[in-house]
Amino acid sequence: MRVVRMPDGSVTIDPSGRKAGRGAYICREAGCLDRAVAKGALARALRSGLPPDVQAVLAASATDQTMTDIIQTDTIEGGARGQE
User: Fold this and answer.
1) Distance between CA atoms of 63 and 26, rounded to whole angstroms?
2) What's the total number of domains in the chain?
3) Which of 18, 45, 60, 62 sits a CA distance of 20 to 30 A from 38?
4) How confident is the model over 41-65, as a mean pLDDT?
C-alpha cells in the first residue's frame, strides 16, 4: 500500500502507485502500520504529518494477514518503470 504527499501538501492513499509526490510504502499488516505510526516512520518518510482521516483509512484497510497470504493474493504489475 502506498501513501503519498501530493505537491500541494495534502496526504492521500495511492492504490495505483502512480500519483506524483513523495510516497511511502507500507505493508498491509496491522502491526506494520501501528509501528510505522507509533515510531513516526511514516510521517518522517513523507516529511509531513499523517492526517487523522488518512490514518483511519489505513487502519481500517490493515489486516492481520501473514506475508504469505499477501504474496499469494496480490499481483505485481508493471516492469522496472511501470510501463510493461
Assistant:
1) 12
2) 1
3) 18
4) 82
